Amino acid sequence: MKDDVCAILGDIHANLEALTAVLDDARSQNVTSFLCLGDVVGYNANPHECIQIVRSLQSPTVRGNHDHYCSHAEPLADFQPNAASVIAWTRGVLDDDDKAWLRGLPFSCVPMQGVTLVHGTLDMPDRWGYVFDEIDAEANFAYQTTPICFHGHTHVPVVFERHGTSIERMEPPAFDMKRRIAPGRRCFINVGSVGQPRDGDPRASYVIYRPASREIEFRRVQYDINTAAAKILKADLPERLAMRLYYGR
Ligand code: ZN
């Protein structure tokens, strides 16, 4: 634990090129273990390959909404048309073993002392609520029992820090940002998205956490967007899903 260096990956969304680039970057930072915030599948064209890699990392992983719907035969009425069509496509390309693994993922977990993982929010994690502001974050903090909780789902990196009754919302700058979490503070940290960033920066986003120093580092990684986008088009998935990778929206 003393020299642990954890990489926290969220919203990989079947983007093999982004995942591979992030793993290379993580290894260059001497990362010793991985944690995964779910939505391993959906939107991009390599869901099976990304599941294989995440499983090989032996990373504690929680369930995202795409993981859930790609592995359960439930209606997709609540999804945007683009998301619904890629979920239907993903159901067709995953094998039984992939789906069984997705179905077995917990909604939240405590993989190490002081750290909780959840895809969206601890306030009803099976309802997939989005946390954009301090009011959304307050509902999560009511259920957060560890000093740190990592989450994803919005694809926008952000830190909510609670001190007493006040909650501060902080967006990391575009480049690497390191900060220590002060004792007594409680943090709800969105690590951004590996496979489909939506904060205007198209580079893959993830976080490195060093438990011994309580240090959080946001990292951005360039990857081969052309290849990822070409695969989306070749699979006949919606063109918009390829274009948005270039904009990071
Ligand atoms: Zn997602």
Give the SSE layout:
Blueprint: E1 6-9, H1 16-28, E2 33-36, H2 47-56, H3 65-71, H4 81-93, H5 96-103, E3 108-112, E4 115-118, H6 134-141, E5 148-151, E6 158-163, E7 166-170, E8 177-180, E9 186-190, E10 204-210, E11 215-221, H7 225-234, H8 239-247
Parallel strand pairs: 1-2, 4-5, 5-9
Antiparallel strand pairs: 1-10, 3-4, 6-7, 6-9, 8-11, 10-11
Helix pairs in contact: 3-4, 3-5, 7-8
The structure holds zinc ion (ZN).
Concise structural overview:
With 249 residues, the protein is an alpha/beta fold. The chain has helices spanning 16-28, 47-56, 65-71, 81-93, 96-103, 134-141, 225-234, 239-247; strands spanning 6-9, 33-36, 108-112, 115-118, 148-151, 158-163, 166-170, 177-180, 186-190, 204-210, 215-221.
Description of the structure:
The chain contains 8 helices and 11 strands. It has a single domain (6-247), classed as Metallo-dependent phosphatases (Purple Acid Phosphatase, chain A, domain 2). The chain is globular, with a radius of gyration of 17 Å. With 249 residues, it is α/β, with parallel strands linked by helices. The strands form 2 sheets. A 6-stranded mixed beta sheet has the order 3-4-5-9-6-7, covered by helices on one side. A 5-stranded mixed beta sheet has the order 2-1-10-11-8. Strand 6 (158-163) and strand 7 (166-170) form a beta hairpin. The model has no long low-confidence stretch (mean pLDDT 95). The chain has helices at 16-28, 47-56, 65-71, 81-93, 96-103, 134-141, 225-234, 239-247, and strands at residues 6-9, 33-36, 108-112, 115-118, 148-151, 158-163, 166-170, 177-180, 186-190, 204-210, 215-221. Zinc ion is lined by residues 11, 13, 39, 64, 153, 155.
